[in-house]
Automatic annotation (TrEMBL):
Gene3D superfamilies: Immunoglobulins. Keywords: Disulfide bond. It comes from Glossina austeni (Savannah tsetse fly). InterPro entries: CD80_C2-set, Ig-like_dom, Ig-like_dom_sf, Ig-like_fold. Residues 2-97 form the Ig-like domain. This is Ig-like domain-containing protein. Pfam families: C2-set_2 (PF08205). It comes from the Eukaryota. The lineage of its organism: Eukaryota, Metazoa, Ecdysozoa, Arthropoda, Hexapoda.
Amino acid sequence: APTHVTISGPTQARVGDVVPLTCSTAPSNPPAEIKWMVGGRQIRNATSRTSVSPEGGWITISNITAVIEPNKRSLVVICHGLNMQLTENVVSTYTVNVLCK
């Protein structure tokens, strides 16, 4: 299973902004599957790609965009890296703070 997953993207945004987010796994074998939760809702149409890791195994990378909704102070994003063969789940949580006027 991957030892960790990493979420990257902006840490601050304004209401209405479209925020690009990337989740990448540490190497795993077989390749890990990525699942996203944004604001408590699962994202079903996220695309992922896998590449061979120089350290062995595969790295999985997934990109999504999220829109900052009105009346929110922050957007909590969770990325799950799952290895279906081992039924292991590695989780990372990321927060985008909403800038107010």
